[in-house]
Protein 1
Amino acid sequence: MKQSRRKFLKITGLATAAGAAVGYSDTLTAAARLSRRGNPAPDAIYGNAPAPEARIDADGQVKPNADFTVASTVCIGCTTQCGVRVKVDNKSGTVVRAAGNPYHPLSSDPWLPYETPLRDSLRWTSNYGESGLENRSTACARGNVVFDKIHDKFRVLTPLKRAGKRGEDKWIPISPEQLIEEVVGGGDLFGEGHVDGLAAIRDLETPIDPANPEYGTVANQLGILGTTDEGRKDFMVFRFLQAFGSKNFSGHSSICGLSMRAGNAAFLSDFNKYPHLKPDFEHCEYLINFGTSPGQAGNPFKRQGKLLARARSEGNLHYVTVTPMLTNSDSIAAGERSRWLPIRPGGDLALAMGMIRWIIDNNRHNSAYLSVPSKASMERVGEPSFTNASHLVVVAPGHPLEGRMLKASDEAEKEDVLVIDGIDGQLKTADQVDAARLEVDETIVYQGEQLAVKSSFTLLKESAFRFTLDEYARESGIPAEEIAELAHEFTSHGRKVAVDCHGNTMHTTGFYTTWAILSLSALVGSLNYQGGMSAGGGKFKDMKGAAYDLTAYPGKPKQPGIRIDRTRIAYEKTSEFKRNQASGQPYPAKDQWYPFTNAIETGLITGSINRYPYPLKALISWNANFVYGESGGENTLVEALKDPKASIPLIIAIDPFINESSRLADYIVPDSVLYETWGELNPWGAWLTKTNAVRYPVVAPRQVAFANGEPVCMDSFVIEVGKKLGLPGFGPKAIKAADGSLHPLERPEDFYLRLFENVALDGKPVPDADDEEIRLAGLQDYVPRLRRVSPQNWRKIAYVMARGGRFEGKEGAYKGAHLAKKYGGMISVYNEIVGTSRSALTAEKYSGVPTFYAARLVKGEPLAKRYPRAEYPLTAFSFKSNVVSTPNTASSRLRDLRYTSTIDIAARTAESLGFAHGDVVELTSPGGRIEGLLRVREGMHPEAIGVEHGFGRSGEGAITVQIGQETLEGLRFRKSGACINLLGFADPDRPGQIALSDFAVGSNSRQVIPVRIRKLSA
């Protein structure tokens, strides 16, 4: 390397004089003379870079470039959905650049005060006065290039109907009108026999099964699957699904982060809204990231990374990242402030329970905080949150109240929980007591009888003390002294501590893993504290607002019945249980039920395949990719879905691309992508102030249009279907205003512009946009539409659109030492709903407090017993790429940055097996196999195998498809890499092919996969 450099420098030095040196002559002569060769670039300094969207004069005057429009919208390159400003070439109508939106908290920190004029925002992020150094607003690698998806050759731009059998990848284009006629009317659509259309399925009178009336009516036999909430879910659910009369909608949470969300819901005592917590990175002093890695992935990816970098360099943050693999979150530059703690995949639950044990055993918990028993007492003593640690739980075996919180009254609407006063020892209602007794294990007299009770804290303590610290160390792979050190440090920073977790919990005991991790924050009382834990900053009113109630409309039907995925209801409330109980065998049910789970995506499919509790007649899959996204999806779902009679007779996929799931559909409806779409959404996490982002088409959608000129997309499709079916909430009198007047829903803009109006009018309404701002934001073409929808408030709607949403100022984040936006509910050290629920398959009672479970099958058998280490010596886990994610596979430019993936293994493990870097290897699990290139690396747990998620595709341009007479050849680079979800497998203790899942909440298990490895070639 030194010789090459020396040679280069020597030749460069002689080039001008000699003009020679074989192989270098022309290049070096040109370089030495600083002359140009070949076609000159438009600019000697900036080369082929496009002209800027604006110039800032020396005196600070902003001069916008009339050749471009800068529009504020939202990126959907991943699930973070940052606010961006896209630069649109006015001549071609194409996006040429994306940057962060300086008004949006996910893209800037500090973010620009909301009422700052647009013209000034261009100066704020420029080099004028070096302002942009402090206030830069950037897009990540994904956001910079994913807009090339808009013009990808594999986009679906016209409705498609399958030609041949499902999964043969043969399609014929059809008109939008034919699409609506066939999916609504049904018939012998494919020469395979009659298929009911949506009109026949929308039956609100006929029961699905008279023997099980709780199943509801035939209308429930339509299911809808969605993707992450990218701003249009409310339209699909509140408008179409509820108007149709079905209860069966599910997003992608069960294959993404349901175990984490359910664990948060248990901790926060809310299984209805499913809130979740994130750290206040900005003021945190000690943070433990369990399996999630700010700077590598996580959500919100970009904001977390920025806040983490700033907090460890400018603030006082020390943090530990607990993962099987060293990631970008650790940094040598951070010195002692950053530490990586390698853990065995799935070991997080043992680690968290070990920390809980050590904290309680060493009296490091905040007893004074935990003794505050109610919201009333919380307010009296000046705490920002409270727990039920002192609440009394009935533990008398066989008693009707066993597992229940002790209350002064049996009336459900009263919150009169009983505690023991820590001062006088008397039994009182919680709102009368400021400091309750924390540790209780005694028999009391209650309504004239002796009753054994324990406090929630005592139950947690007993749960943690079931195992020794050494036993937790063996399960987690982290030495006992490390667990003790971690717990000591965590309890040494007062309230300015936080924990975080996400995808690492997606395994068979992930629900309890999350709950245990969050319980660490309860032990020190960091919820709602500056530098502690936050449930988010809230939002401005949107669906129900000052101008419109967009959830209500005349004739909206009730939605009786139970969900096909058997969530949100206990098995004990079903007719099946009553029949089984009458026969003397109440357990087992035919399959598992999930009383405290909100939705399971593939449960809609497996429920239909297994005909339990009932089959679907039609499925609408909207940008959902359950086959690729679910560990084991390819192995458990595909073959059944290929047979309409054995699975679901009619599958309609709304999708801009043919992916691994939509290739199994009967019809594909085009959808808009990225900057062609409407939407309104809120950040997923890590924001502390009110934030609403909006999207509207800033470039013309490329799809074919309906007769009214609206491009075919999810929104316009369900509007046309709704009108065809005569559903309430669609057509000329569909949207209800606050004054009682009714307005039309004929086009997507009829809904979304009114949604934006609600946001604009909430509280103190936003200002009016003036003509200059409308021009700078490129909203001139929207003015007629705005005037039509809202003659009074159209300029306020434009003001919100011009800024990409509505954003509260940063000054609204804190109130003294507390967060200004506090979570108002109770923290559950013990959760009564969980503690009184049972497995429908085994009658096993769920633990009402966090507790340790080894990785297991649904009926309790440990994975290690069914799949011993002698046969499967390693454990595979997935991790998120910081570049590629499943929503952006169709971005060819992104693959220029990250072409493929590898199978990662620790150096010492590879050496012991005789493997070398670059070997082609095979991983085999109990359910599948994958091949890939081996990457030997340091920074890996020796028992772990890591596979980066987002590669190894068989959709979105990775395979060859036939559309009419055109054959589209698949692109090899989109197929490249290993797909870890092909290793997933079915739980052998469940009927049918149902992928391994969390035994309590049913979330997909994709993280603790037993595998063996062998070398295929060097």
Note: Residues 2-18 form the longest helix (17 residues).
Protein 2
Amino acid sequence: MYQYDEHDQRIVEERARQFRDQVRRRLSGELTEEEFRPLRLQNGLYLQLHAYMMRIAIPYGLLSTKQLRKLGDIARRFDRGYGHFTTRQNLQLNWPRLVDVPEILDELASVQMHAIQTSGNCIRNITSDPFAGVAKDELEDPRPYCEILRQWSTFHPEFAFLPRKFKIAISGAESDRAAIAIHDIGLRLVKNEQGEIGFEYFAGGGLGRTPILGERIRAFLPKRELLAYTEAVLRVYNADGRRDNKFKARIKILVKETGVAEFTRRVEEEFARMKEDGTAIVLDDEEIARMKAYFTPPAYETLPDESLEGAKLGKDREYARWLSANVVPHRVPGYAIVQLSTKSDEVPPGDVSSDQMDAIADLADRYGFGQVVVTHRQNLVLPDVRIRDLREVHAALKALGFATPNLDRVTDIIACPGLDYCDLANARSIPIAKEIQATLDDADRVHDLGPLTINISGCINACGHHHVGNIGILGIDKQGEEFYQVTVGGSAREDAAIGKVLGRALSSEEVAPAIARLVDRFAQVREHDEETFLEAFRRLGPNPFKEALYAAGA
């Protein structure tokens, strides 16, 4: 993984010192809350419903075990003993005291971490495939390009005050595990007819009040043009994006209102001008090679090319289900990718305690190469586990509460903090997630239903990505009461789609039983055991699911 040089380290240390003085002035009354607000947002500090919330950057979701232990230590010392992993592959602390935040930043800097650009109208944390570097279907590791963009965008003076926040995701595989279609810029590494690897370039994706999938504006962009072309996109957006209405300020609205052809023309015109006047940054082979060197594969053992299939057919059904749902084939023979489910009805989705962080770090050191990855579905990954160690790892994860065999299954629910924490929320998300999990928590049922995602957001800002859940749930306010709107048919994968609203909003008491009926209807109407929920919805349309959701007398 990338290692800071002296310039990187100085940046995060100086930022921490700068914010320490700003906090001192706020606490002494020299700064009002209004004056302090833009300063704290630049350091990832929000004022939520009950307390401050601090968002810590985890670039492309990759953590060393030293960093994970430090996050656990910070949560233990300065918060309530847990952290919340988010759909942006970040970590949030929900209860830090303002007076402690400068020390938290110092602690983060000691392990090459920070909270820079995790908020505000700037380029946010750049996300990627959680299987990057180890996926069997990967064309090339996208993380070096994530890091190049991270370094280019950090403190970029031209893009520090964009019309709205700006999100970038990069995938290097056939399967889209980075949800590139719902990002302001989505990039996918592809090969052209000449055998060169470059980027398929999408722009204008995003969820929130107006969910839109990104449009392809370049079928193939050479690697050397990555920074210059991205700068051209951002310049067009910075100049032409709506600043008069924050609800129409995202790049998705600009692309929609101008049309993708006109937007692309403006970008290409700006790009050509930059090349003509010599301001276009060329990403040369030397710099790419330098960055790739930070992501060289670890020293894998030469192991037999074992298959996971034999173990799935064994007598231990619990272990077999875990292998089927949570363990993925690795590109190196004898290894596997292990996913840790943070989803149960006991704790909110994405919440991990300090003690659990320490224990996960121990497992990553013992059974891997000292790295852990955060996924955009709020789960964790051990990327390099030997197949011969899987039984021991399963036993350890079961003891920790992370072996629930439900990855991408019906109880692997994404949920934002909702009204329990967020002052923007209209309704609670966490209790609804727990009720649904409890209602559907039957191991055989979860296994038999196959891939089926449920995403929950507490407001229209869509931090829970409800629009692209196979089943999406949106919290709304109806005359002071919490209600929930249900959508069906969404996807965040390579077949990306925005879900369809089925009908009236449900009361909080109606949601879990209604979702159970909807899932039962799928089980009744699927053509065969291998047909997924999304395939069935696309074959049958919304009516069978709408009937189940609003069943008479239910």
Note: The two ends are 53 Å apart (CA to CA).
Protein 3
Amino acid sequence: MSHLSALHGVAHLRLLGPVEYVSADGTAGRPGAPGPQAVLAALALRAGTLVTIDQLVDGLYDDDPPASARRVIVNYVHRLRTYLDRAHAAGREGGAESDRDGGATVIGTMADGYVLRLPAERVDALLFGRLTLRARRAAAQGDSAYAASVLKGALGMWQGPALAGLPGPYAQEQRRSLAEQRASATEHHLELSLACGRHEEVVPEILCALEAYPYRERLHGALMLALYRSERSADALLAYDHARQVLADEMGIDTGPVLDELHAAVLAGDRTLLAVPDTARTAAVPAEVRVRSAVPALRAPAQLPAVPCDFTGRHEEVCTLVAALSGHTSHPVAVITGMGGVGKTALALRTGHAVMGSFPDGQLYAELRTPCGAPGAPADVLAGFLTSLGVPHERLPASLSDRAALFRTLLSDRAVLVVLDNAAGVAQVEPLLPGADQCAVLVTARALAALPAAVKVSLKGLDPHDSVELIGKVAGIRRIEEEPDAVAALAAASGHLPLALRAIGARLALRPAWPVATLLSRMSDEARLLGELRVGELTVEAVFEQSYAQLSPQRARAFLALSLPHCVEFGVKGAAAVLELPEREVEDVLEALVDAVLLETRAPGRYRYHDLVGAYARATARVELTDEELRQVVRRAADFMCASVAGAVLATQPLGGRLTAELRPRRSAGEDVGTGQEAVQWMRRALPTVAAVAEQAAGSGDAEAVALAVDGLMLAPCFEESVPLGMLAPAATALVRAAVAYCDEDVVGTAHYAAGVILKKHSSLDCLDRSRAHLLKALEIFGESPAPADGLRPFLAVLFTHAMLAHLDAMCADFSSARAHAERSVEMAMVTGDQGLVTRRRTLLLQIRAQDPGSRGDLARIRAQCRELADLLTSGNDVKWLIRVMMTEADTLLYGGRPAEAAALYRQVLPRARTTGHARNETECLYRLAEALLLTGDAQAAVDHARQALQGAQLTQEHLLMARSHQALGRALQAVRAGYVDGEAAGHLEKAAELYRVLGLHTGSGAAVGQ
């Protein structure tokens, strides 16, 4: 029979008898000892559903499991995976057709448990249950012959007592349950055989069944009826007497009313008992099913479209949905949500085809969106469903409610899967839901939070590996093999959106001569990005347009405006500042955009655009917003950004008040950044957004936006110890050009200063030269010696410019020039009367003097001055600069040939650096400590500290710190290996040399000194 043939030629499990795994070539084997078999049976009886380790422990042991129970379960699963993998491989070697479910992949790990990834129809016990259900439904519809045939095949699957020999309470419980199912199916099969007129030949079968189940009155009744119809009335009466005796003697009970009535009818010679199938057929249909008599019998509908042949990934999602739809939940509803183009329909079709075996009465499918994109009318959808279920078009009810009622009635005794694709809302879906427990519904929608569901799966883009695989399926695997990095970059540029990935793959397939890099270059231009993403008539842009068209005017304006600053992520306060609306009102708008799947939220109050949605929003904004509206949005974003950075500076910097005193007036109060380390962490998180807003301001052509962005970037170097400032380099460079074009000299000079400081942290080949040029330009604009009375902003800019030039010169080993700039910064600090500022500038001067080889005879004096400054910094609670002056003192010991003392002092500094969260100071201390330890001969300790330094340097993204850390690690590794330069040591030394070349420095020249 067709429903049994599914178990031939594919791997499956037998539980109806001894537990056996049958490979695809038909080879059967016992999967391990009884313990592992019991675990496999527990997973198999809940195939496709997560079974936790605790559930498996409870099922294997009685009330008091051993302490090692969880470990035992894990070990059993490992053994099972090994066995299944070996059995699957043997099946392939034997020439069997490849089976997609093989080996260790059959048992998957999910959360705190496991899931068996075999379709339910490949577990004989589950298939048996489905077949008995199918037989009951066929019998209820009057098709006794088919029902009897199904049951005969189902009963033929048994090979002995179910779960034979398995230990544990779960196996015992399931044995009883399956035995009862078998007995009930046996009774039903014999009764159906009688209904088909097989009364004479069924008598021996009933007698055999009674030997196994002597106390089941239905079997005694079937025997009496079979004998009576075979013209053996006397034997029928004797059968009744035997039944009474068995029940009375062994059970102590009397026969029931059904058996007594049958006995009376036989005694009376009731001819109606002789009725055979043709007369009994209609009577067998329950009254609640007779509504179907007006509808001609049709084949079960099979409306599911094919699964896309390039369907990729989504394994966990498929398992979750299959478990929900084919489990034991009554009337399950599953919902798949996500933005347009994310693959909701493909996942629904993949799931629908995977669970078809659970719905033998058919599958209904409806696209709930009309060709023009409008929501389809539920009444029209129901008309299609009812027609497919056999209702003539002329007999369709007129009203929606009547059609929905008839739909529920027709499905009341059927097991049908209903797939509703692209739902617009709950009101559209509710009339399309069947009421029967055995039916299931799978809905896809952009958002459908209000619909009750057994499971809701919110789809995101594919993971990077699956994204590349999907491109390869469309474009050909050759493209992936030839240009793997470029294909991976394409996948990232598409936002890992399946629709976009298919479009990319299609374009590559049609252009075999194009290098992948060509398409990648075209997609890097946002103005043409969406135009590149087309699949025939369907475009990514059109998918987004459908969601955008449903927005109210206020939400549409917010959707467009908030995309313009290119923020990586933003909060309610920032959005309120950009939109100039109250925060509570803005939060409602943002949540509505999330519900429309046009915004994403990863944490409460934090929002972001998917890359492609953001590109669509900006392209639409340029069309629908006026030039003035565009400028205003960027200006308000720059205002909020500047205010937020200023707040972080005030919360963390000793000079915060002076640094922010002459900033351009701001309309916004900025973000709530917290205090101390909270503000520092905020700045680290906000840095990508600061860069994005600054770049948009630079390109806005608005002088006010440019000036505000310059103020923000001028303050950013206050956090050089904790954030990778190099990320701001493109924005800083663009702002210089914009300031020159639109702003006064004060803004231009500040822009040059900010660019000079930030570029020193960047990684381009000429970054140090460009940094120096910008700093010198700032001095040219503000003058070499401005007084505080001339304006605090230009005064501080020049003071810090001298400090930065001193730093650059020290890096390039031009110590004479470095000392001159450092001394000038000290002189300017003294003019302010701020002893703390003077102490910091003097510390910088001491750092440079300590590094200068010409000062080696003066190290003792430098060391004494360091201790003097350390006392001042300690009393001023200036931890950041105290760390620097202590490291400078340690440097004098290191340069003076006293590495052990230097190492001891570096060790004192290290905990302070770590507790303050200053990654740059910590990294400097680590690599210098590694250098000192290496000189003491403790090479292994030097390796350990150099590795830590490299990790910190990579966080700061400063090339000089990375170069020094690679160099320290390479030399330490070389020392550990007694001077032998192995592959790892050579790799670090080569990387250090490469970084020094990028910076334009000689290997090991200069040191990292602070501002």
Note: The first helix runs from residue 2 to 5.
